[in-house]
Write a structure and sequence with these properties.
It is a single chain. By secondary structure, the chain is mainly alpha-helical. About 75% of the residues lie in helices and about 0% in strands. The radius of gyration is 21 Å and the shape is elongated.
Length: about 150
């Protein structure tokens, strides 16, 4: 399972990006005076995903073991996301694409980062509970022979 950890985490982050984009598309429909993204929405979202994926790979956010994660890994994840969104803004403006509004882009960023952090926190809680159960079983197995004497 360890050898599949990085690709699985990358795929879960990709699925979470799709959830954040879905949030964006739903939220935009209910906001007055907001354009749903214009004619280049698919290209903008593809560029956004590419920029963030590259920044996460460059920041090596998939190299650490998340079950032992500390605040450094979580801050690195946030920094990689911010760098990716910054790179998207620079490239979209340099290519003179109609960019998404900064508020909506920030909403996607916030939702996606919160989703990624939630997945990692849940993974860590799951691993720590499994460890406690195994440790309790091991202790009780060691106590059994002592009780029988």
């Amino acid at each position: 399972m360890n050898r599949f950890r990085k690709p699985l985490l990358f795929l879960s982050d990709s699925a979470l990006f799709l959830c954040a984009v879905g949030f964006y598309l739903i939220a935009v429909r209910y906001m007055p005076y907001t354009k749903v993204g214009g004619e280049k929405l698919a290209m903008s979202l593809s560029l956004l995903y590419g920029c963030i994926a590259v920044s996460q790979l460059l920041f090596k956010t998939y190299d650490s073991l998340w079950r032992y994660a500390e605040s450094k890994e979580y801050l690195l994840l946030i920094a990689a996301a911010l760098a990716g969104f910054g790179l998207y803004e620079l490239l979209a403006r340099a290519l003179r694409w109609s960019t998404m509004s900064f508020v909506l882009l920030s909403a996607i960023a916030a939702v996606w980062v919160l989703e990624m952090l939630a997945v990692r926190f849940l993974y860590r809680v799951h691993r720590s509970r499994g460890f406690r159960r195994r440790a309790a079983a091991a202790v009780s197995a060691c106590e059994m022979p002592l009780r029988n004497k």
